[in-house]
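Lecture 7 notes: from sequence to structure.

We start with a single chain of 197 residues. Read the sequence below before looking at the structure.
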Amino acid sequence: MVDIVKRSQPITSEAIASELKLTRSTLRPDLAILTMSGILDARPKVGYFYTGKTSLSYISEKIKNIKVSDVKSVPIVVDESTNLYDAIVLMFLEDVGSIYVTSKGFLSGVVSRKDFLRNAMGGMDLNKVPIGMIMTRMPNIVYVELEDSVLNAAVKLIDHEIDSLPVVEEDEKNYKVVGRITKTTITRLFVELGKND
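Now the structure, written as tokens:
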């Protein structure tokens, strides 16, 4: 149908139906979807035009409009004074790949499974060492804010080769952790978009 419009624009729905050997009413739902998605444009008494947009550009535009705040999940947060053993237990109970660390309620660090494994193999007494000793500290933490796009979050995950990002709100040059975005979050969104379109 799009090829017919490209070739013969402007073209009426009657002419499209005639070329496809179908009725206008049969084509109406398909033409409505192509128009709503922005691939075709319709002008009364003139006909249909091809806009130049593809279904991929439509999906790309849709993804760019989804905010981090729409898909974030609950973060797993501990205080800097939490010992490594308790943090490891929490990580496995919550089934997460990273734990965010706070000091006085604000983001101060992040610890991943690799960090725990590296330090556990080093023979440390996990009950005595605070998580603050092994965490990656601010300002070396990659994060996103609530109004960032999910596309921006996905790019950061890939560029920095990490599994999750803390979602933060700025409060007088400090950051409060209000959520998290993970590779699973992005994958789940991708699947939902695929099912809905």
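The first strand starts at residue 40 and ends at 43. Keep this in mind for problem set 3.
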